[in-house]
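Example record

The entry below shows one chain as it appears in the dataset: sequence first, then structure tokens.
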Amino acid sequence: IIRWKQDLTDDLVRFEALLKDAQQITVERDEKLHRLKELIVKKMENPINIDNKKILIFSAFADTAVYLYKHIAEWAKKEFGVDTALVTGTGPNKTTAKGIHSEFNSILTHFSPISKERDKVYPDTKGELDIMIATDCISEGQNLQDCDALVNYDIHWNPVRIIQRFGRIDRLGSKNNRIKLINFWPNMELDSY
């Protein structure tokens, strides 16, 4: 019992140190988020294909996707007048677009209206989404080739999943002449670990 209590005390000290370190990470100090925003600015100001502002951002974690939506959606609307959506598969979907229902298929159809034939499915809706933040709930079987830029905000442990993510926009029938696939790689210390 004495050793067990010592181990619990040691665990508590370690957890408190981890918590203290984690609390130092704020939105203002989140370099990865700032780099993602820089990527979005570059994409909006210099589209890969003419008039295509679409960008699909994948995260393996729903909490990360929600965090990104919280810090990108209103900013992108204010800065560029584009609408953003969130699809995680575990919580409520969200969108900044007025008149677009936050249901799964509605969001995907309004993000990729040509490949998903929006005019047939939602003939009364004309809004469009330009940024989608999602988890791997959409990494298979979705035609999203209206989009020409995909970001892996975090790298899934399974390389096949990364290929599946890229396959959402790298598809036959794409209207784009070029696409861009972007990975945020972990730092070298994590890779070594």
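Notes for this example: Strands lie at 55-58, 84-87, 94-95, 131-134, 149-152, 180-183. Residues 112 and 144 are 5 Å apart (CA to CA).
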